Structure formats: C-alpha cells, structure tokens
Amino acid sequence: MTLYIGREAPKLWRKICMETYVELQLFMEKWKLLLAGLIFQYIHGLAARGVHYLHRPGPTLQDAGYMILPELGKERGYVSESLFTFIFLSFILWTFHPFVYHSKRFYTVLLWRRILSFLVASQALRIITFYSTQLPGPNYHCREGGELARLPPPESVTEVLLINFPQGVIYGCGDLIFSSHMIFTLVFVLTYHKYGTKRFIKLLAWVLAIVQSLLIVASRKHYTVDVVVAWYTVNLVVFFVDKKLPEMPDRSNGSQPLLPYVKDKDEKSREDHHKLLNGNSVDTADWRQRLQVNGKHGEDGNHIHSESAANGA
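Structure tokens predicted for (wild Malaysian banana) hypothetical protein (313 residues):
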C-alpha cells in the first residue's frame, strides 16, 4: 500500500500542477468578470441589510404551506441550514475536481464565470422584488417583540457597509421574495445537471432541492410564495442567460486536451516492448529519436527492431 501511494503521489502532484497552470491562464483572462460577480455578492448582502432597516413586524400572513407543513420550531431551525451547507460545500468541491481527476468536462474558471452570471442575474431581480414590497417576516426573530424585528437607524455609513457580518446576513428580515437559499440551490443543481456525469447524483440533487424547499417553509424562514417564485424565476434566468453566454468547450471528448498525459520512460519502454513481442510495429521515428538521445545511431534502432521482432516470432 505504501509503495502504491509513493508511486502515484508524483503523478497526482504533476496533474494538480498542470491543471493549476492552465486554470491560472484562464483566470488571468477572466478575472475581471469573476471579480465583478464576487463584488455583486457583497452588493446583494448590502441590499438585504438595507431592507432590514425598512422592515416592520406584523401578523404572519396566511400561507398554504404553513397550513400543510408542520412547524419545525425555533430549536430545529438548523435543519434547513445544515442541508443548505451540505449542498453548498459539496457543489464547491465538485467544481474543483478537475484538479485531481483525469476525466473532466469543464474548466473550473469558466464554470464559475457561468455560475456567477446566473447568481448575479437572479439576485438583481431579487433585490428589485423585495424592495418593491416589504412583507412582515415570518421568522421567529422577525416577529413582533423579536429583538431584531426592528433595527434602529444606522449611526454611521460604516455600520451599513459592514452589514454586521455574519449575524446581519443570517438574522435578516424583510428580504423575502424570493428566497436567496433557493437561488443558490437551484443554480447549483441546474449547473450539475448540465455538466455533471453521474445520473444518480443528478436525481439526488433535484430531490435535495425539493427537500430544501419544504424545510425552508417548515422552518418559517420564508413564505411559500418566496420559494415558488424562486423555482420558476431561477430556472428561467438560467435558461436565458445560458443561451447568451458562449458555450464552454467540452473536455470529455478529448478534442481539446488540457492535461497532456506524459508517460514515464519505463512505462513507454514497456509498452513498446510489448508491441514488439506481439508483432506490432513501433513508430520508427520515435525509436530513432530515443536512441539518438542515448548516443546511438538510427541504424542501431533498425537492428534492435529486427532482433526483437525475430525473438517475438
């Protein structure tokens, strides 16, 4: 086992280094777009923090989902967050698998450029929506009497810009239509559905998205309308934005190899020797090149080729 790990470790390290080099080249070309997408994540958080100052608690609205799904309760509110964290981290790890695995379908930099485009378009619509109409928050800390239901006016611009991270993001109120958790979940699921390879995981991803929707409503973090609007809005956004973006090259067909596989000398010699023993021809130019590197003449290559072929017969 130790011998196997010692033999495979250099190959894995070489693969990671080569993939990193290529991804860095792409990153140098696309970094402005990636940075813009990351900056908009902050703008989205800032907008959500701003609408919290406008939030006014009130009676929880009548909701069909609340009538159907039992309330999980404040002490079990972590269940939906735990599932979302699992989906979030699993997807991020999957996007970086080309650095490790030899089989791959996409470039990580180009994939995240696409993901951020989907997120920005969806979040921009979300900001417009929750600033248009502020609903009384159904979450426990947003109800009348809750400590965070009403925020006092900010004392400085710095207080607003810092958005009280991370508490200000986790315990927000007023940014309801539509669910930010469902934006991320659906963008991730739709992306894996297109670029993933495991059919079972695709099915599991959609099941988890449905379970996430139900848990959000059962946890009273959003109204049912927030989740329903997210389902059709995000799907439509991804559909139209995806059509506008240039299609990513498919690496699985081998037409555009990113990581050229370099064989070790011993491995290549064994393959050539195996071909000779089976009576198959070996590229003479390759033999000549290798023999000349070793300080021998091309004619020696012909002699060795004949002798090996005769022994194989």
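Residues 31-150+171-244 form one domain.
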